Amino acid sequence: MQYAQPYEGYAMWSVLGIAILGLLYAVYLTRQILREDQGNAQMQEVSRAIREGAVAYLGRQFRAIVIFIGVLTIALYLTAALAGADSFVSIGRAGAFLMGSLFSLSVGQIGMRMAVLANVRVASAARRSLGEALRIAYRTGTITGMLTDGLGLLGGTIIFIIYGKLAPEVLLGFGFGGTLIALFMRVGGGIYTKAADVGADLVGKVEQNVPEDDPRNAAVVADLVGDNVGDCAGMAADIFESYEVTIVSAMILGLAIQPFNLKWILFPLLVRAIGVVSSIISTYSVRSAGEQENPFRAIDRGFRLAALISIVGFFALAYLYVGDLRVAFATLAGILLAVVTNNLTEYFTGTDKSPVKEIARSTQTGAATTILSGLSVGLESSVWAIFVISAAIFASVVIFRGEPVTMILYGVALCGIGQLTLTGNNISMDAFGPIADNANGIGEMVGLEPKARQIMADLDAVGNTTKAITKGIAIGSAVIAAVSLFGAYGDTVIVELTKLGLSAPEAFLINVANPEVFIGMLIGGAIPFLFSSLTIRAVGRSAYLIVNEVRRQFRIPGLMEGRVKPDYGRAVSICTAAAQKELLGVGALAVLSPIIVGFLLHEAALGGFLAGVILSGQLMAVFMANAGGAWDNAKKTIEDGLYGGKGSDAHKASVVGDTVGDPLKDTSGPALNPMIKVINLVSLLVVPLIVQQRGQVSLAIGLTMAGTLSLVGAALWYSKKESFGGAGEKALGQAAMAATGEASADPVEGKS
Questions:
Q1: What pLDDT does residue 1 have?
Q2: For 277-286, what is the mean pLDDT?
Q3: Distance between CA atoms of 121 and 436, rounded to whole angstroms?
Q4: pLDDT, tens digit, for every residue of 309-334?
Q5: How does residue 449 score in pLDDT terms, banded at 50, 70 and 90?
Q6: Which distant-in-sequence residues (6+ apart) come within 8 Å of 152 by Cβ?
Q7: Which of 154, 237, 504, 542 is 20 to 30 Å from 402 by CA-CA measure?
Q8: Do residues 746 and 733 make contact, with C-beta atoms less than 8 angstroms apart?
């Protein structure tokens, strides 16, 4: 790569150095956390069971998707080769896809493994003080945050150093690898965790009137495992792919700005490097000012300090290097978007805010009013969220008014860069939730003293809010990244039309008056609903199995009296088998739907399809995430003694609301983030072939369409066929028995 100024070369290598610094800081924190006290032998036994279940799940998940990854590696090579790229770029795209997949897997796997090592350490620290428990939980989450920062920055920088102006072609593979793995980890982890959670809560709390993490509940370990595979591994991979995709879109659009200038590429990389440094510094500000302080205030202080350091840093960078403060203001819009999203999510899901209080009041009149009030809160929150995102995008339009469309879209990409500048803090906040939840569960299962239990309950409640905030940021970043990719899609269409000697517009416009475009937009708007239907049905099927299994075990003589231990492994195996069966179907829908629309209706209709996916996907995702978070925290306020406390009718109604919201906030809603970006990236990858084949009918295209339609149809048929209590559930039960070594049982009827 040739640099216009020597200091640009130094700056590029400094970005690489800071990426490595972030990884080294993660290693340092790991060693620090592992030195903490692990509590007594009983606590360690429970933690070990959680860890073994989580690791076994991820191992099985990897085996389920490795063939899919292999097939797509070849497909990524072909998308470049068939579009006329040379072998250097084609091989680079396939290699970058593997690298993105590996990095995304690493972030999820390592982050989750650290979380299941930290849970018992947090529980032990809670016996001493709130401040110590908060420190361990937050810094463990920071390990995952630093891995996300370091690997995301490392991958994008290395590719640009090697490929220079050809980097966009290769970066698409890198972004797609991370996004696809995030989709699988999000969906699989979400199905697992919510099947266990719904089953454990409905039978344990509502039917048997036992506490949430009562050791007599056969699904309690599966529930604690699920917190990690869903909220640690799944969310870490989700934010990582958002981090990747915003870098990819900013660099693609930066390279498209004419005349070419390296500063448009270096600026987003340097902003991300500043974010790594600010996250490292702010980690140490997250500490409790006293035992009575709300832990969320300490976490929020760290976030705001990191934001302040970052803002000062990139304004200095814009002034001294780029010579254009507009790029700093566009990035600032992203920071403000993150802060406003935090506050908005906290308002709709916080235990001390009026929406959650309203839901809690509604539990006094039963489950129906509880569900209605939660739906109302979720729907309203989605409207405000889209206004905030629209304002952030409009800010880029105002900042770069009068510039070409590519420059405006570059400003939107910088907004995404700014929003995820504080990724280290965001991931720390997210991982904090399941770590605190697990610690609370361990405390209840082993019967720790009331003071420690209260500290862990307080941390758990804060963790629900921080998880909801991170989901809001992930959804917002998905939309911003998708809009940026949408701009890159338009540029790609224009380039391909020019190559064919066809008339190409200066800017790619979507004319919804065109019937084909309108059809594409309608189909795109429907895809998030279909995707959510598949994932919710999957949770329902799996929860059906767990409910029957927990009921069966509660009938075992001596279990309720504590003389017999439940078979935790059976519930873990059922959840694991159920989650893996769903992965390829939803993956096929996300990967293949844009290919079908593109080849059947061509590139303009595919653009309309993408617009529909982005709009309805964002609305659905925020609605589900915030409604579920609000239901969950309303339940927690009642468990703390409101309206009769645990065991009251209000509590039972709140549990029903929570179990309805669980698959919304932890499975279907969050899974829409990677789905939106998978669809956008697949469209970017195949649109050169779509443009080249426009107006042509060939056997290869016909066979491709027949194959993709068959695969999508098979996924939908499987979802409808596997109804509650059908043959599919019995097959899952048999798979679970094989995993646990049982000879015979009927998981549906509960006979053994």
A1: 55
A2: 86
A3: 10
A4: 999 998 999 999 988 999 999 999 98
A5: confident
A6: 103, 178, 240, 243, 244, 247, 272, 423
A7: 504
A8: yes
Instruction: Please count the CA atoms within 13 angstroms of the CA of 328 that sit on its side-chain side.
Output: 17
Paired residues of 746 in beta bridges: 751
Residues 556, 564 contacting (CB under 8 angstroms): yes
Answer yes or no: is pLDDT of 523 > 80: yes
670 preceded by a cis bond (ω within 30 of 0) = no
Instruction: Work out the burial of residue 503: count CB atoms within 10 Å of its CB; fewer than 13 is exposed, 13-18 middle, 19 or more buried.
Output: exposed
In whole angstroms, what separates CA 479 from the centre of its chain? 13
Nearest to 21 by CA among 123, 153, 177: 153
pTM of the predicted model as reported, rounded to 2 decimal places: 0.83
Q: Which residues contact 609 (CB under 8 A, 6 or more apart)?
A: 520, 521, 523, 524, 593, 594, 597, 598, 601, 683
Asked whether residue 742 carries a pLDDT value surpassing 50, the answer given is no
Show the beta-strand stretches assigned E in 356-511.
none
Q: Tell me, what amino acid is at 225?
A: V
Contacts of 23 (CB under 8 A, 6+ apart): 146, 147, 150, 151, 154
Contact predicate 314/331, CB 8 Å: yes
Measured CA to CA, the distance from residue 455 to residue 511 in angstroms comes to 57
**Residue 141, φ and ψ in degrees, nearest 5:** -65, -30
Bridge partners, residue 751, by sequence: 746
> pLDDT class for 719, splitting at 50, 70, 90?
low
Amino acid sitting at position 265: I
- The domains of the chain are located at 10-283+298-502+515-740
Residues 735 and 577 sit within 8 Å (Cβ to Cβ): yes
Q: Which residues touch 742 (CB under 8 Å, ≥6 apart)?
A: 570, 752
Question: Which of 194, 190, 186 has the alpha carbon at shortest distance from 219?
Answer: 194
Cβ proximity of 689 and 79 under 8 Å: yes
Check the CA dihedral 374-375-376-382 and report its sign.
positive
Type of residue found at 694: R
Q: How confident is the model at residue 748 (pLDDT cuts 50, 70, 90)?
A: very low
Query: How far apart are the C-alpha atoms of 670 and 471, rounded to whole Å?
Result: 7
Output the CA torsion sign for 18, 21, 23, 25.
negative
